[in-house]
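Late entry, flavin mononucleotide complex.
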Amino acid sequence: MDLERMNDAARKFVTNVGLITSNGPIGDNIMSAEWTHHISYSPGHIMINLRSKSASTQNILETGEFGVNIAGDTQNVVTSVAGRGSGRDYNKIAILKELGVEFYRASNINVLMVKGAAMNVECKVIKHEVIGDHIAIVGEVVNSSAEENVQPLLFHGTRYFKLGEHIAKPDEKRMAEIDAIYDKNRKTQAT
Ligand SMILES: Cc1cc2nc3c(=O)[nH]c(=O)nc-3n(C[C@H](O)[C@H](O)[C@H](O)COP(=O)(O)O)c2cc1C
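Prediction complete; structure with ligand written out below:
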């Protein structure tokens, strides 16, 4: 069955917004991708899921590289502009520069990176595959940095949020009770 964007169940996810930068036949470009996932530590892999018709997809598949800039919680304008209109029709980098956003050239790949993002990661494509109505593109991390004082913007049910109240893990007493329940439910070892 389908799980459309406005479906009540689909709206329960909370994600980051990845500002995906690329440079290829379309020129320097940027798009927003809520489907930006860290999927391996060693080596570091990041997966993005993009529409095949996106200008970014064409850039990335032709050059084999892309930048992931995890939007900070004051970059709501950047994510909305990057996610509005195609790089085939608009120079979104120029639009953002006019709006005061600053970029720098990545060191290990030839794409622009967004200044002031919570995290900046340079990736080289190692795999891509059509999955459903998007293309899953997996990149290996070739350079990364993070801004200690910038918190990531959250995306939930088509709206942006900030990180809020910290929820404590279960305390020691509660964990001891849970441990006892674990013990009661231990599976017997196969002999
Ligand atoms: C907050 C936000 C999140 C988005 N997430 C995705 C996503 O995960 N995958 C995707 O293909 N498009 C996503 N989009 C839509 C693209 O950013 C949009 O289609 C963009 O115009 C594509 O640009 P391009 O054609 O220049 O690559 C998102 C848009 C916004 C505003």
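The longest helix spans residues 172-184. Will revisit in the morning.
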